[in-house]
Amino acid sequence: MAAAYDREDGLAPAPPPHAADAYDPNYVPDSVKTFVVHLYRHIRDKNVYEIHQMYEGGFQRLSDRLFRDAPWPSAEAVAPYCDGDHVFLLLYRELWYRHAHARLSPLTAAHRAESWANYCDLFSVVLHGVVNMQLPNQWLWDMVDEFVYQFQSFCQYRAKLKNKTEDELHQLKQFDKAWNVYGVLNYLQALVEKSMITQILEREKEGLEQFTATDGYDYEGGSNVLKVLGYYSMIGLLRIHCLLGDYHTGLKCLAPIDLNQQGVYTIVIGSHISTIYHYGFANLMMRRYVDATREFNKILLYILKYKQYHQKSPQYDQILKKNEQMYALLAICLSLCPQNKLIDENVSTQLKEKYNDKMTKMQRYDDEAYAAYDELFSYACPKFITPSPPVLDQPLTNYNQDAYRLQLKLFLYEVKQQQLLSGIRSYLKLYSTITIGKLAQYMEVDEATLRSILMTYKHKMHAVDSDGKIVSSADFDFYIVEDVIHVVESKPTKSHGDYFFRQILKFEEMIGELEKVQFD
């Protein structure tokens, strides 16, 4: 697969067009020479702490100072400063292309294909070679995250055909095998299987293996790269299947990770947020509102408490964006299936500040409510993709929004069905018992229609969980005996832990304010 883009010819990656005149791929500033020498030495020595410092700090600082609008020096130019080490240069190119995707535009199909070829080479070495190194979890997560992002970005780029030039269309034909959906899925699945991470997590539950306890690192002189890449690839597969609209398969891929326990996915905040965002969204689309609400609540409370510690992180803006999107998804969940007993007081306060008006609208059955659901879904959903390549011989149109429109249509169809049932819920919340005849009279329908509505409500408020069991999502239940409806409302259990947690948060805020006063 990578052979079509083999770059053993010694040519440097072509710089993006707008930087071509000023950019010399062979010029290596002294600070970059020093960076490469030290990073290579630390990777050889398996010094994870120093690697992390250089990856998170040094690379970002040099990018901001020297390469804000230009690519880094080519891998061939820095090769003399790392003894021409093949694996190190694959890692360096991975950073090179990631920087190009983040900072430079427009990227051509050729650049995207070169990045795909590099990932193929890098993952092939990990899968089939002997990689004797330890890398920080942050880097390994970013590797998988970027791999999925670049696939998503290429699918979006390829689907915008309307204003493509002849040269761009020629490149799309030339690199038609790049970022093939089967290739992307196969690499991630191969990393999961070759790492045997599913078996490792099973053995860990039985006390026969340590993975989470060591944060995935190998303290016996081995390598963490394959195992941790395999672990994060399960999250990558969840994300891709969400982008494709296959939510059941996505959740199945994530099943080996127990979200009720602390895990390696919680160590890196980007991994933590991405996991819960896509897990919650998949559950929302499968009508498992309770699972989605529970996990959104937990992650939003976590962000509320810890986001201040990530203000200097390169991912801070992304954390804030995903935070806002998850509040929007939580508003949708609670409007479709009220579960206020699952929501922490602090999260509830934030939610009301952001979306109280829209949630009030979404309780109604009119066009305004429908528009509110449309707006929140469009803002908070993933950027869905069409994985198949376009037919370039037909009239050129943009179809990058087709997958999104399909998912929006399916979601709004579900909303419309649920809105028809909103009246029944309002009445049943008022009574502990009521006859079918009386309720039919209130709702201005005949008794046969009411029975049909009640059965539909039962169906819509139940979902099939990950174990295949049918579970209720409603905050109350009802049954009918001799034409009398009996309503059973679940009583929320008091959580003393939440109370203490809220008090701790308040005290931490007070201590922070006092420390500021002292320093002033």
Automatic annotation (TrEMBL):
Record's keyword terms, sorted: Cytoplasm, Initiation factor, Protein biosynthesis
Coiled coil: none
Stored Pfam families: Paf67 (PF10255)
HAMAP family reported in the protein's UniProt record: eIF3l
Family indicated by similarity: Belongs to the eIF-3 subunit L family.
Species the sequence originates in: Panicum virgatum
GO terms of biological process kind: formation of cytoplasmic translation initiation complex
Domain of life: Eukaryota
Residue span(s) of domain PCI: 295-494
Oligomer status and interactors: Component of the eukaryotic translation initiation factor 3 (eIF-3) complex.
One Gene Ontology term, aspect cellular component: eukaryotic 48S preinitiation complex
GO terms of molecular function: translation initiation factor activity
UniProt xrefs under PROSITE patterns: PCI
General function of this protein: Component of the eukaryotic translation initiation factor 3 (eIF-3) complex, which is involved in protein synthesis of a specialized repertoire of mRNAs and, together with other initiation factors, stimulates binding of mRNA and methionyl-tRNAi to the 40S ribosome. The eIF-3 complex specifically targets and initiates translation of a subset of mRNAs involved in cell proliferation.
Keyword Acetylation: no
Protein known as: Eukaryotic translation initiation factor 3 subunit L
InterPro entries: eIF3l (IPR019382), PCI_dom (IPR000717)
